[in-house]
Amino acid sequence: MGRFESPKADLESGYVSGASASSSGELPSIVLTKQHLKFLNGTLNNLAPIDILRWAKITFPNLYQTTAFGLTGLVTLDLLSKLQKETPTAAPIDVIFLDTLYHFQETRTLIEKIKARYSNINLHIYKPEGVNTTAEFEAKHGTELWKSSPDHYDFIAKVEPAQRAYADLAVAAIFTGRRRSQGAKRESLDIVEVDDAGLIKINPLASWSFKQVQEYIKENNVPYNELLDRGYKSVGDWHSTEPVKEGEDERAGRWKGTSKSECGIHNKRSKYAQFLHEAEQKRQQDMLAAKLEQVEIKQEHVEEILAKA
């Protein structure tokens, strides 16, 4: 992403984030060893989300919230708004939204409601590079790219814009809306994580259930996505989101019928790295197939010469 050093300082853990201090004003390194992370998570697991948010605000520089305005993200947003009222002179937490250009209209309507409700919110919107509309995206990348090349789509629509946002804003740490009760790969989620790129991720509501999130939204009159009243529990792109059936995990409606459960942003291994790896494998397979074809042609030619001799 440009602003992070490669993890190298802590050979035992490999958990290093931030950028080295320099005269240019870059952020100092933030080092979290495995032992430190274990201690932090053991302690933070006993705290309420608002206390986790308080702790993170005074601990990490260049801290942002990333959200697609799902229920958990909305709770976090509301809690941060309350914290801002407690300490009005403190710097607010800006919000990053990745506009894939394929969000539901209900999601876009919600964003306008959120901007009206939280007038002091500083929202950074990032779209796929070089395009502003769905038509422009499809003219550049083709229609239904999510079907023909899902990994490529994830990188172009989500991973690259996220990496660009983190680089542009010099993001050192982010709040996410992930929770253990969402199921799939999130059941063992920690409060604090460090990803392969060195980005610190804080999941303040990791221990909350869907019911707790719902109750908070209702009790505090927080605007939410109308789709949630129609059977949806986790809302992403319209082409890969469906209502959830009774007894299914919250995220069962995302990429239904596939083995997929994450878009790549929160995967342990960079989705882009996976995409490049698969592209390289395909290139090598194509090269091998071409060589075999050449060998077969040469063999046929030899057989023709021998037949004429």
UniProtKB/TrEMBL annotation:
<dbReference type="Pfam" id="PF01507">
    <property type="entry name" value="PAPS_reduct"/>
</dbReference>
<feature type="compositionally biased region" description="Basic and acidic residues">
    <location>
        <begin position="239"/>
        <end position="253"/>
    </location>
</feature>
<protein>
    <recommendedName>
        <fullName>phosphoadenylyl-sulfate reductase (thioredoxin)</fullName>
        <ecNumber>1.8.4.8</ecNumber>
    </recommendedName>
</protein>
<keyword id="KW-0521">NADP</keyword>
<dbReference type="GO" id="GO:0019379">
    <property type="term" value="P:sulfate assimilation, phosphoadenylyl sulfate reduction by phosphoadenylyl-sulfate reductase (thioredoxin)"/>
</dbReference>
<feature type="region of interest" description="Disordered">
    <location>
        <begin position="239"/>
        <end position="260"/>
    </location>
</feature>
<dbReference type="InterPro" id="IPR011800">
    <property type="entry name" value="PAPS_reductase_CysH"/>
</dbReference>
<keyword id="KW-0560">Oxidoreductase</keyword>
<comment type="pathway">
    <text>Sulfur metabolism; hydrogen sulfide biosynthesis; sulfite from sulfate: step 3/3.</text>
</comment>
<dbReference type="GO" id="GO:0005737">
    <property type="term" value="C:cytoplasm"/>
</dbReference>
<dbReference type="InterPro" id="IPR004511">
    <property type="entry name" value="PAPS/APS_Rdtase"/>
</dbReference>
<keyword id="KW-0198">Cysteine biosynthesis</keyword>
<dbReference type="InterPro" id="IPR002500">
    <property type="entry name" value="PAPS_reduct_dom"/>
</dbReference>
<dbReference type="InterPro" id="IPR014729">
    <property type="entry name" value="Rossmann-like_a/b/a_fold"/>
</dbReference>
<dbReference type="GO" id="GO:0009086">
    <property type="term" value="P:methionine biosynthetic process"/>
</dbReference>
<dbReference type="GO" id="GO:0019344">
    <property type="term" value="P:cysteine biosynthetic process"/>
</dbReference>
<dbReference type="GO" id="GO:0004604">
    <property type="term" value="F:phosphoadenylyl-sulfate reductase (thioredoxin) activity"/>
</dbReference>
<feature type="domain" description="Phosphoadenosine phosphosulphate reductase">
    <location>
        <begin position="63"/>
        <end position="243"/>
    </location>
</feature>
<keyword id="KW-0486">Methionine biosynthesis</keyword>
<comment type="similarity">
    <text>Belongs to the PAPS reductase family. CysH subfamily.</text>
</comment>
<keyword id="KW-0028">Amino-acid biosynthesis</keyword>
